[in-house]
Write a structure and sequence with these properties.
The complex is a heterodimer of chains A (517) and B (652). Chain A has 20 helices and 5 strands. Chain A has 517 residues and is mostly helical. With 652 residues, chain B is mostly helical. The chains are: A mainly alpha (517), B mainly alpha (652).
Chain lengths: 517, 652
């Protein structure tokens, strides 16, 4: 009988992931054993402590560069930077999720099983405390994202994709108000997500086939093997290119790139706003982290082949996002299309073949995450008796009613539009610069032109808030509780600081821009 | 003229090198941060800070002064007196690097002391002057903002930092001129100042762009070391653009018209911003950029000419005005003309101009505050024809104002004598007939200054009373106003000699400033010029005394061509209106027409296309999962097909 050879495991390097998943399991136990009235506080503090603990471990591991657990996980600069970004943004999202004073009982339904729009449902909407299962679900999702950006083989990546997607499908369905919309969004997200996962898995299979038959090397789907296979596999390149295309589709779906973006507006609109914020910030980071790793590590030598096609996808994404944002009438859908357009800009950074492109993309992800979280935090505050007032016509004259929050939102919109002295300007610069240097001027031209188109919907909101007279329908801005206020302030300050003083984070990203194989 | 243009290029500046900051000097950034923080606190706390806000404002400037003094003392002990403090990389784009850094060298140090020292006294004065104004806290917030911006302007170590400060003081000046925004005249004056400054600022901005384009840097040391390698024409254009900026900020010909109108602001503002500090920023810019200006003789000639024209113009108009603050404003224009003359002469005269700037800061601030004190006692009357005989009622104001008056007309041994007379001498040291031209202008200006300042002094404090009926007993101002007056008066008396003997040596450590260059022999001997200048001063003052000791009419009198012209600002406003405003309005109308018909048509067409496209595309977002899945499938097929096409080489 042969001895089973166990891979060596570097627990310290894996500790952020282990902490998140461990606490998520603990959260399930809390749900079972802690009395109902203590659960909210316990769960929220547990989740926040886990995120902070994981963040501490990421910082502690800052100099690690290794591949561990049998080549399944790579802990390197991009992993650590992106894990750090996910954790910081997730902490802010948790603050929004944990807020219970803006709306009595929080943004989540108390009993998800109650029939939507029934009498029971209306009763729960009036103030029963929201379900606390959202915290373990969120921590599972965060844990999955941490694995996703670190995954060094395609199967681990697939598992991680499912680990963070499944909780998100559930979270989308848990809105306290407009339950039908919320459930519909979750259903759509789930069906289409499963569909996209199938593409991804099929891609993995084809790539595996491609790696077979190499001299002196066994077949496999770890990125190093794929990388070697791209160089000298005797298998038909049809396998490689079809596989690469299908893998890309699976990832571009999560990243909300056109034409795989179709779920985004519906899901962003239907999901509870804190969850939307979480998805817009953290899922984006995770999806682009994986894209970076797959295309810079596994397929780096095929860059000449995939760049034009993904470039076309990027341009299409920018166009669709920008043009469709113009006619939106709902603030959450507007932000969804803006998020799609931003995915296009991020792809420009991914396609720049140098370390600067990687650094620029990572900077963009962090900066955008802060801004978008702050934007959705404001959205949670503008409300009337029926919950959030998301229709844009309701925002008219908001500047007169609540100049402070209207001012904050204006600032964030200017950041989205890429006005200098905001992080939006610096991050666009960080991805367009490397693209320009590497001869991809066409992407930059498309980026600048669509930015101009995209500035219009943003400025339309600004004009509406400040230059319209407030009407009877203009909602007031609720005074935020401490949690939302903290998240909002962190987002706004980060947007400002990264615009004025971007050098430290840019340097950090530049130093972290090398992958291990 | 050819002779001047081909006049040998002045020697290129030696290599400029700055030392890193240490000790107290490493906290020199606090000089900017403290007033800025104070301004932010005052603005953000709102009405909650109304009761104590003004004292916070005063304290911030006081602390900045102490810090400035400490840094100054430490700088004295250093070998390399140019200390640079890099805070962070502000802009790093390709090959362009802009440092967020400060430079503390002798030139910056004297400016820091002037700004914080005189600023502190004026702040103190303003506490009392603005005591009855509802907006006192807001006033101090803007005032501190101004000080912060001005300190940033003089402390930056590159042109971009200078530009930041430059715009900052412009903003603060605009806010303070139109501080009483309820008055239409104040609002208009604020706008006028803002617009005329924009013209100058545009020049400065383009100048900085040229530096980017030709030298690839805006750091002072790199620009100064690199300017020798530039083509003569480039240096000329660069210098002219910087000069345009300087002229805008300093109220010099042809951008002088805003400065007298700026007197609509509260008097402490006129004293600090429009007399002592901000308006001298132009002089600072030229002195700081002296390696650029010294590199081209034509450029220096232009600067000298601007200075000479402005100084005479200021004198002539000042003599015809009846508003106490406007006379002082035109005298500021004229005195800054002297400073431009000085910096234009180059070489050792740079330091002379700075000396005059410092001395002027003292005596002009003194006189403005004195004017404020007079207005305070006379129900805000500003017409000097309605004063008279105030010397008996306002003893302190009278004595202190007298010190300022004697200083500005350059009477021995007051400060103006030590600071202005060397500039006149330096003007006479030029080559050939230009020595006579510019020396003569400077000398004539001295006589005219004596005339109109004496007129102002005599009509205000002496002669018969010509008060309006509502004033029975003018009162002296409270202590908090008179103490700064006394201190500034002491400065007006004593500072001149001290400054004239110490500052030029001190400034030698600054690149190119105060260097003892071999001058040409003056066309007249030094002694003769000194006697002449004292003589014209006494003549001018005596004439004014004779004419006005018995008072004057309280209504405008018919006058000759020259006086009428002077009363109308030498028709410069009419000129501006005819040459810039009318064609400007016409051009605007033409552009609006073009814009409406042409550009808007195009833009609207594009917008309609985007909007229409958006509306149509929106219909694809049906809300049905099946159509979404179809769309994803179509996309997937296209992407896979494209990859396979690439593989097959169809797209190559």
């Amino acid at each position: 009988m042969t001895e089973l050879k166990l891979p060596s495991i570097d627990y310290a390097a894996l500790s952020p992931i282990l902490i998140m998943l461990g606490v998520a399991l603990l959260g399930v136990l809390v749900e079972a054993f802690v009395p109902r009235r203590h659960r909210h506080l316990t769960q929220l503090s547990l989740a926040l402590v886990a995120v902070l603990g994981a963040l501490v471990m990421v910082v502690f591991n800052a100099d690690e560069r290794l591949v561990t657990i049998g080549g399944a996980i790579a802990v390197d600069g991009p992993t650590l930077f992106l894990q750090g970004a996910i954790l910081v943004l997730a902490a802010m999202a948790l603050l929004l999720i944990g807020e219970r004073s803006v709306e009595r009982g929080g943004a989540f339904v108390a009993q998800a099983a109650v029939t939507a729009e029934s009498a029971d449902d209306r009763r729960q909407a009036e103030g029963s405390n929201g379900t606390t299962e959202v915290y373990p679900l969120t921590t599972f999702a965060i844990g999955g994202m941490l694995i996703f950006v670190a995954a060094n083989d395609l199967l681990t990546m697939f598992i991680a994709l499912e680990v963070f997607s499944l909780p998100l499908y559930l979270l989308c369905a848990l809105a306290r108000r407009r339950r039908l919309l919320s459930q519909e969004a979750a259903m759509k997200y789930f069906l289409l997500g499963a569909y996209a996962s199938a593409f991804f898995l099929f891609g993995v299979a084809l790539v595996y086939g491609f790696t077979a038959g190499m001299p002196n090397r066994t077949a496999g789907v770890d990125l190093a093997t794929v990388h070697a296979a791209v160089k000298d596999s005797p298998a038909s390149p049809v396998l490689l290119f079809a596989g690469m295309a299908l893998l890309a589709i699976g990832l571009l779906f999560k990243a909300a790139a056109a034409p795989f973006h179709v779920w985004t507006p519906d899901v962003y609109q239907g999901a509870p706003t804190p969850v939307t914020a979480f998805m817009a910030a953290c899922t984006k980071v995770a999806a682009f982290g994986a894209l970076l790793r797959v295309f810079h590590v596994a397929f780096a030598d095929a860059a000449w082949d995939f760049t034009p096609i993904l470039g076309a996808v990027a341009v299409l994404t920018m166009l669709v996002g920008a043009v469709l944002a113009v006619t939106q009438t709902d603030i959450k859908r507007l932000l969804a299309y803006s998020s799609i357009a931003n995915a296009g800009y991020l792809l420009v950074g991914v396609l720049a073949p140098t370390g600067e492109g990687v650094a620029g993309t990572m900077f963009y992800l962090a900066a955008y995450g802060f801004s978008v979280l702050a934007a959705f935090a404001v959205v949670t505050l503008v409300r009337d008796a029926d919950g959030e007032a998301t229709h844009l016509s309701r925002w008219a004259g908001l500047g007169r009613r609540s100049p402070f929050y209207a001012g904050v939102f204006t600032f964030i919109l200017l950041a989205f539009a890429g006005i200098p002295l905001t992080s939006g300007f610096m991050s666009k610069f960080a991805v367009f610069g490397p693209a320009l240097e590497n001869g991809q001027a066409w992407l930059v031209v498309a980026g600048v032109l669509t930015s101009m188109v995209l500035a219009f919907p943003y400025l339309r909101v600004v004009v509406m808030m400040w230059l319209s007279e407030p009407g009877d329908a203009t909602p007031t801005v609720t005074v935020p509780g401490g949690l939302t206020a903290t998240a909002l302030m962190i987002g706004v300050v980060a947007t400002l600081v990264l615009g004025v003083l971007p050098a430290p984070l840019l340097d950090l990203a530049t130093d972290a821009a090398t992958f291990v194989r | 003229m050819d002779e001047i243009l081909t006049y040998a290029q002045a020697e290129p500046a030696g290599a400029v090198a700055y030392a890193p900051a240490g000790g107290l000097l490493s906290s020199v950034w606090l000089l900017v941060a403290i007033p800025l923080a104070s301004a932010a606190i005052l603005l953000l706390l709102g009405r909650r800070a109304d009761r104590w806000g003004h004292w916070l404002g005063v304290a911030a400037i006081g602390v900045a002064f102490v810090l400035g003094l400490g840094s100054f003392l430490q700088l004295r002990g250093l070998e390399n007196k140019s200390v640079e403090l890099s805070l962070w990389d502000f802009i790093t784009v390709g090959h362009l690097r802009v440092d967020f850094g400060l430079l503390f060298d002798p030139l910056a140090a004297v400016f820091v002391l002037l700004i914080t020292g005189v600023g502190f006294l004026i702040h103190l004065y303003a506490v009392e002057y603005m005591a009855h104004d509802e907006g006192r806290r807001r006033f101090f917030a803007y005032f501190n903002l101004f000080v912060a911006a001005m300190l940033l302007l003089v402390l930056g170590n590159n042109y971009v930092m200078l530009y930041f400060g430059w715009e900052g003081v412009g903003l603060a000046s605009y806010l303070l001129i139109s501080f009483w925004y309820g008055r239409p005249s104040a609002a208009t004056a604020g706008k006028k100042a803002f617009l005329m400054n924009r013209v100058g600022d545009a020049g400065l901005a383009i100048g900085i762009f040229i530096m980017f384009a030709t030298l690839g840097t805006t750091q002072y040391d790199e620009v100064f070391n690199g300017v020798g390698g530039l083509a003569g024409g480039t240096v000329l254009v660069l210098g002219l653009l910087l000069l345009l900026g300087a002229a805008g900020k300093s109220g010099q010909f042809p951008l002088q018209a805003w400065l007298p109108d700026a007197m609509e602001g509260p008097t402490p503002v006129s004293a600090l911003i429009h007399a002592a500090t901000m308006v001298t920023a132009g002089v600072y810019l030229i002195a700081r950029s002296n390696p650029i200006f010294s590199a081209n003789a034509t450029l220096q000639l232009v600067v000298v000419s601007v200075g000479a024209v402005t100084l005479l113009m200021g004198c002539l108009i000042g003599a015809a005005k009846d508003d106490i603050k406007r006379v002082l404003a035109w005298s500021t224009v004229s005195q800054i003309g002297y400073m431009f003359l000085g910096v234009g002469l180059g070489g050792a005269a740079y330091a002379l101009a700075i000396v005059h700037l410092l001395a002027h800061g003292f005596f002009k601030a003194n006189m403005f505050l004195g004017a404020g004190s007079v207005m305070h006692g006379m129900n805000d009357q500003v017409d000097i024809r309605r004063f008279g005989g105030l010397s008996k009622h306002m003893k302190v104001t009278w004595i202190t104002f007298m010190m300022g008056w004697l200083a500005i007309i350059g009477m021995f041994p007051f400060s103006g004598f030590f600071s202005k007379e060397p500039i006149i001498v330096a003007a006479f040291e030029r080559e050939g007939w230009t020595a006579w031209l510019f020396g003569g202008a400077a000398l004539l200006g001295a006589g005219l200054t004596a005339f109109y300042m004496t007129r102002l002094f005599v009509l205000t404090f002496h002669g018969p009373k010509r008060w309006t009926e509502d004033i029975t007993h003018p009162h002296e101002s409270p202590k908090l106003m008179t103490i700064p007056l006394v201190l500034l008066a002491i400065g007006s008396v004593g500072a001149g000699f001290l400054l004239a003997t110490s500052v030029p040596d001190w400034l030698t450590a600054t690149a190119g400033l105060g260097g003892q260059e071999e001058g040409h022999e003056a066309v007249l001997s030094h002694a003769v010029i000194t006697v002449l200048s004292l003589l014209v001063t006494v003549l001018g003052a005596g004439l004014a005394w004779m004419l006005f000791r018995a008072g004057t009419a309280t209504e405008p009198q018919p006058a000759g061509v020259l006086v009428t012209a002077a009363r109308r600002n030498l028709y410069t406003d009419a000129f501006n209106e005819a040459v810039f405003e009318k064609p400007g309005i016409f051009l605007t109308r033409a552009l609006v027409f073009l814009d409406n018909r042409g550009v808007d048509g195009l833009v609207n067409g594009l917008a309609a296309a985007v909007g229409g496209g958006s509306g149509r595309l929106r219909r694809l977002q049906t809300g049905f999962v099946r159509s979404y899945a179809t769309s994803i499938l179509t996309g997937a097929l296209l992407v896979v097909a494209a990859f396979l096409a690439v593989q097959a080489g169809w797209l190559a």
